[in-house]
């Protein structure tokens, strides 16, 4: 179904100023894959952890950063349950970074995975794309629209498809100026914007 989604525009110019003040990560051969969001079930962090496990079974080229807070005891228990049963190798490549300003997460990240369930608009998607990062999103909810045609989409809740998309990434985003113009056109008007975006519901495991 369609719904009117209210969101505040993204000030890319201000974000650029903040980015300029952040120290760049040394080039050490690591490829950092990040999750940025609340640490709770509706954000589907469990999917991100499962993808990390599968990728690390194939290659040790990657490490994984999780940015976000456990805001209550329930969220804390959720995170603890996700960590149970992970082997020492996976735990050594999976780091909880807590909350940081988005510009710091952008600088540290090579690939962003957004597995959020039924999200109307993932603000981090255009923010990371604007700075040339590879962004991989579920095809469920509004994350695909938030990518403005530049995010890579995997089949919702398919770990194998997401893993394949990660392993087939070709490196830094090309045509960055074209992407920036498009994202600015879509997400950076003045004032609060009302956009018509697709919203999905899942009933009995089926997208409607």
Automatic annotation (TrEMBL):
- Check the record and name the Gene3D superfamilies matching this protein: Glycogen Phosphorylase B
Give me the segments passing through the membrane.
none
Q: Which InterPro entries match?
A: Glycosyltransferase_grp1 (IPR050194)
Q: Which SUPFAM superfamilies match?
A: UDP-Glycosyltransferase/glycogen phosphorylase
Tell me a Gene Ontology molecular-function term this record carries.
glycosyltransferase activity
The name this protein goes by in its record: Glycosyl transferase family 1 domain-containing protein
Q: Which organism is it from?
A: Xanthomonas boreopolis
């Amino acid at each position: 179904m369609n719904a009117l989604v209210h969101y505040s525009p993204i000030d890319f110019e201000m974000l650029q100023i903040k980015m300029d003040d952040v120290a760049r990560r040394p080039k050490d051969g690591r490829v950092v894959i990040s999750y940025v969001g609340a640490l709770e079930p509706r954000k589907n962090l469990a999917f991100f952890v499962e993808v990390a496990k599968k990728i690390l079974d194939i290659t040790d080229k990657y490490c994984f950063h999780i940015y976000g807070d456990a805001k209550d005891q329930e969220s804390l228990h959720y995170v603890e349950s996700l960590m149970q049963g992970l082997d020492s190798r996976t735990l050594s490549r999976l780091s909880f970074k807590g909350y940081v300003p988005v510009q710091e997460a952008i600088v540290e990240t090579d690939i962003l995975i957004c597995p959020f369930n039924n999200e109307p608009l993932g603000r981090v998607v255009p923010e990371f794309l604007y700075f040339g990062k590879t962004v991989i999103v579920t095809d469920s909810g509004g994350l695909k629209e938030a990518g403005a045609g530049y995010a890579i989409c995997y089949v919702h809740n398919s770990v194998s498809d997401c893993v394949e998309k990660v392993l087939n990434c070709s490196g830094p985003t090309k045509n960055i100026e074209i992407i920036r113009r498009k994202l600015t056109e879509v997400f950076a008007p003045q004032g609060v914007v009302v956009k018509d975006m697709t919203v999905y519901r899942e009933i009995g495991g089926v997208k409607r």
